[in-house]
Amino acid sequence: MAIWRGCVMVICSVALTSVILIVAAGEGNASAGGFAFVGQNSDSYNATQSSAGQQENPPTHYTLTPEQRAKAVAYAQARYTIYFCGVALSLGIYFLFWRARIAQAFRNWARSASARPFVQSVIFVPLFFAAVAVIELPLDYYSGFVIEHRFGISTQSLASWLADWAKGLGITLVAGIFIVWILYAVIRRSPRRWWFYFWLVTLPLALGLILIEPLVIDPLFFKFTPLVKTQPALVERIEAMLHHAGLEIPPSRIFEMNASAKTKALNAYVNGIGASKRVVVWDTTLRKLDEDETLLVLGHETGHYVLGHVAKGFVIFELGALVAFWIGFLLVGRIVKRWGPKTGVEGAGDLASFPVLLLVLTALSFLSSPIYCGFSRHVEHQADQFGLEVAYGVVHDPNAAEARSLQILGEEDLEEPAPSPFIKFWLYTHPPLDERIHFAVTYKPWAEGKPMELVRPR
User: Fold this and answer.
1) 106, 201, 203, 330: most buried, per Cβ within 10 A?
2) Spatial separation of the C-alpha atoms in residues 306 and 300, rounded to whole Å
3) Is the backbone of residue 241 left (phi > 0), alpha (psi -120 to 50) or beta?
4) Among 144, 206, 198, 196, which residue's Cα sits nearest to residue 175?
5) Helix, strand, coil % over all residues of the chain, rounded to 5
6) Is 408:394 a contact under the CB 8 Å cutoff?
């Protein structure tokens, strides 16, 4: 999962509610289990030896030793707690900035500097987002650095982590200036229909973010190398696998990412759109999995690529954003009308109303999590199915390779073996790992004389 995403989420909660969810769906698609935060694992596990040992007897269920299970559960509980505390903290900050008139003070400073709306945004937005970021820094540090090192996951130094945090904040400030300026320009021009017109504006903004993310943003945090340069033999097998299914993905669109510089996690993902669309596999994955297992991981990711999941997610999430903006328009209007005079907010078109809008949209985003996660679990299951089908006839035993790869990913990423129904419903972007492994070992239409559903082999 991209490190900068947490900062971009702040912006998206204002203007691009859809983008935050599209990015989440586009990245981390190979994570072993399903929670939005990708987990990782301990130092001692030798995945290469383990996969070799399981070659004849692949797992039929996700199984951990008592020690591994206790560690995975503790890590999962820490992530869940941090997630819900993070939402509560964000809501509390926005409420404080509104009721304590902090946003009003920032707006007054911006007005005293210039009467031009854009200049006011240039002053207001950095003050607002920087203040929020500083307040949230302790929790960000604890969740992104302390916890990850405590469970033997992160390899990143504090200096590197702080540099990434600063880069994320910089992206937030630059993008936020323009988005907030556009938002309030639309609100002032059309107080009754701004929710619809601004939603129209977010369409090209969202597409633009998806387009430039792989080309501009991701390289700020990691190095990407065409896989054909580092693993030419593997690329040949990938091409053979895709050709077998009548598909083509140019080798120039498949990359290796130097994740090991910062983490021990295993992962792969698809992101981008149009000319920037690409498949990315982490170097940690290449080191831990054998070639057949890696092919199944990449088969899953090419499923997202071929089945158009990013584009479908864009449509679903933009429709959700339209509903969110409409509800936001109704609620913010009522809140400002009733409490605005008491808190220094002159109207919905006043920059001082910004924390009110954030408060409402963040709450809506939180409440909509089960809907978006349900959609994500659906497309992740489709990608698992596609990976098995596309590998059939190329990998000797795709079911065994898929089961082994998921078991290794789970152990390495410290995936919880038995999440509660509520956690699955509210937070899981993938089916639970035990379900995925069960599907991997039982889905064999070719053995039953049935046609494949997603792939038509040549």
Assistant:
1) 106
2) 10
3) alpha
4) 206
5) 70, 5, 25
6) no
Six token digits for residue 365 = 């985003």
- Burial category of 1 from C-beta neighbours within 10 Å (exposed 0-12, middle 13-18, buried 19 and up): middle
| Integer Cα distance of 395 and 442 in angstroms | 16
Q: Under 8 Å CB-to-CB from 79, ≥6 apart: which residues?
A: 35, 37, 39, 143, 147
Cβ proximity of 277 and 237 under 8 Å: no
DSSP 108-119: HHHHHH-S-HHH
Residue 247: alpha-carbon gap to chain centroid = 27
Spacing of C-alpha 375 from chain mean position: 14
For residue 319, how many other CB atoms are within 10 A of its CB? 12
Q: Please determine, for residue 5, whether its predicted confidence score (pLDDT) is greater than 90.
A: no
282 has which bridge partners? 257
User: Two tokens at 311?
Assistant: 């584009």
Catalytic residues: 301
Give pTM, 2 decimals.
0.85
Mean pLDDT of the chain: 86
Percent of the chain whose predicted confidence (pLDDT) is above 70: 88
- More confident call, 53 vs 56: 56
**Residue 254 main-chain phi, psi, to 5 deg:** -115, 120
pLDDT of residue 56: 58
